[in-house]
Amino acid sequence: MSKKLGLCSEDIEQVTVGSTSPHWSDHERALLEATEELIDRAMISDATWAVLARQFDARQLFELPVLVGQFSTVGYFQNALRIPLSPGNEGLNSR
């Protein structure tokens, strides 16, 4: 399993499963849960915040929903405007 940017192919595959995958550490699971909660309810639960706060400082906790929101916005634009992937980038189809 070759890792690029700290993720191996198994990590990427498990992202498609989400936070329920047993593959994740508690912190990794909380990151995925926070993302899922923001997308589903525009809110991060107290339980998820508590796990994240074990390793993240106040600045990192602030940045997390900003980052999720920014990536969601980029995805909305790319999908709405039908922007194709870069040539040679197969995206998740390459799995």
What keywords describe this structure?
4% strand, 4 helices, globular, two-stranded antiparallel sheet, mainly alpha, AhpD-like, single chain, 95 residues, 56% helix, 2 strands
Structure description:
It contains four helices and two strands. It is mainly alpha-helical. It has one domain: AhpD-like (Up-down Bundle), CATH 1.20.1290.10. Strands 1-2 form a two-stranded antiparallel sheet. A hairpin with a 2-residue loop joins strand 1 and strand 2. Helix 2 runs antiparallel to helix 3 and helix 2 packs across helix 4. The two termini are 13 Å apart.
- Fraction of residues in helix: 55-70%
* Overall residue-averaged pLDDT value: 91
The portion of residues forming beta strands comes to under 5%
Shape: globular
**SSE run:** EEHHHH
Assembly type = single chain
Which structural class should the secondary elements be placed in?
A: mainly alpha
CATH H-level superfamily: AhpD-like
Q: How much is the radius of gyration in Å?
A: 15 Å
CATH fold group: AhpD-like
Short overview:
It is built from four helices and two strands, in the order ββαααα. It is mostly helical and 95 residues long. A hairpin with a 2-residue loop joins β1 and β2 (7-8).
Outline the fold blueprint.
Blueprint: E1 3-4, E2 7-8, H1 9-15, H2 26-41, H3 46-52, H4 58-80
Antiparallel strand pairs: 1-2
Helix pairs in contact: 2-3, 2-4
